[in-house]
Input
Amino acid sequence: MRIHYHLSAGAAVLLALTSMGKAHEVPPEVAAQLISKYDLIALPVVNNEGKMLGIITHDDAMDIAAEEASIKILYQKRVFWLVLLVFGNIFSGAGIA
Output
Protein backbone atom coordinates (compact mmCIF):
# COMPACT_ATOMS: atom_id res chain seq x y z
CA MET A 1 0.00 0.00 0.00
CA ARG A 2 1.43 3.39 -1.01
CA ILE A 3 -0.23 5.94 1.22
CA HIS A 4 1.29 9.32 0.42
CA TYR A 5 1.56 10.86 3.85
CA HIS A 6 4.31 11.13 6.40
CA LEU A 7 2.70 9.34 9.34
CA SER A 8 3.06 5.84 10.71
CA ALA A 9 0.80 3.21 9.16
CA GLY A 10 -1.41 2.86 12.23
CA ALA A 11 -1.71 6.56 12.96
CA ALA A 12 -4.76 8.60 12.27
CA VAL A 13 -4.61 11.12 9.47
CA LEU A 14 -5.60 14.75 9.46
CA LEU A 15 -7.81 15.58 6.53
CA ALA A 16 -8.53 19.05 5.27
CA LEU A 17 -12.29 19.12 5.08
CA THR A 18 -13.05 22.48 3.57
CA SER A 19 -16.76 22.25 4.28
CA MET A 20 -15.98 22.10 8.00
CA GLY A 21 -13.40 24.87 7.86
CA LYS A 22 -10.71 23.09 9.85
CA ALA A 23 -8.76 19.87 9.94
CA HIS A 24 -10.25 16.85 11.70
CA GLU A 25 -8.39 13.76 12.83
CA VAL A 26 -9.85 10.65 11.22
CA PRO A 27 -8.61 7.07 10.67
CA PRO A 28 -7.62 5.92 7.16
CA GLU A 29 -10.80 3.81 6.92
CA VAL A 30 -12.94 6.95 7.17
CA ALA A 31 -10.82 8.62 4.50
CA ALA A 32 -11.46 5.61 2.24
CA GLN A 33 -15.20 5.88 2.88
CA LEU A 34 -15.17 9.61 2.04
CA ILE A 35 -13.29 9.02 -1.21
CA SER A 36 -15.69 6.25 -2.20
CA LYS A 37 -18.85 8.09 -1.15
CA TYR A 38 -18.05 11.37 -2.92
CA ASP A 39 -16.09 9.90 -5.88
CA LEU A 40 -12.98 11.89 -5.01
CA ILE A 41 -9.64 11.37 -6.73
CA ALA A 42 -7.63 12.16 -3.60
CA LEU A 43 -7.81 13.74 -0.16
CA PRO A 44 -5.10 15.98 1.27
CA VAL A 45 -3.40 15.08 4.53
CA VAL A 46 -2.50 18.13 6.60
CA ASN A 47 -0.95 18.87 9.97
CA ASN A 48 -2.58 20.96 12.72
CA GLU A 49 -1.40 24.18 11.08
CA GLY A 50 -3.04 23.25 7.78
CA LYS A 51 0.24 22.55 6.00
CA MET A 52 -0.14 19.75 3.47
CA LEU A 53 1.88 16.63 4.29
CA GLY A 54 0.68 14.46 1.41
CA ILE A 55 -2.39 12.87 -0.14
CA ILE A 56 -4.45 9.72 0.08
CA THR A 57 -5.34 8.69 -3.48
CA HIS A 58 -8.31 6.71 -4.75
CA ASP A 59 -6.04 3.66 -5.20
CA ASP A 60 -4.88 3.93 -1.59
CA ALA A 61 -8.49 4.15 -0.42
CA MET A 62 -9.42 1.04 -2.38
CA ASP A 63 -6.45 -0.81 -0.84
CA ILE A 64 -7.66 0.19 2.63
CA ALA A 65 -11.24 -0.91 1.80
CA ALA A 66 -10.03 -4.25 0.41
CA GLU A 67 -7.96 -4.88 3.54
CA GLU A 68 -10.97 -4.15 5.75
CA ALA A 69 -13.16 -6.48 3.69
CA SER A 70 -10.63 -9.31 3.87
CA ILE A 71 -10.39 -8.90 7.65
CA LYS A 72 -14.19 -9.17 7.96
CA ILE A 73 -14.31 -12.28 5.75
CA LEU A 74 -11.49 -13.90 7.72
CA TYR A 75 -13.33 -13.14 10.97
CA GLN A 76 -16.56 -14.70 9.66
CA LYS A 77 -14.73 -17.86 8.56
CA ARG A 78 -12.99 -18.12 11.93
CA VAL A 79 -16.27 -17.77 13.84
CA PHE A 80 -17.88 -20.46 11.69
CA TRP A 81 -15.10 -22.95 12.42
CA LEU A 82 -15.02 -22.12 16.13
CA VAL A 83 -18.77 -22.74 16.45
CA LEU A 84 -18.50 -25.95 14.43
CA LEU A 85 -15.66 -27.25 16.61
CA VAL A 86 -17.43 -26.36 19.87
CA PHE A 87 -20.56 -28.27 18.83
CA GLY A 88 -18.43 -31.15 17.58
CA ASN A 89 -16.71 -31.27 20.96
CA ILE A 90 -20.06 -31.22 22.79
CA PHE A 91 -21.52 -34.06 20.69
CA SER A 92 -18.36 -36.17 20.86
CA GLY A 93 -18.23 -35.70 24.64
CA ALA A 94 -21.87 -36.74 24.92
CA GLY A 95 -21.20 -39.78 22.75
CA ILE A 96 -18.27 -40.89 24.89
CA ALA A 97 -20.26 -40.48 28.12
The beta strands are 13-17, 22-26, 42-46, 52-57.
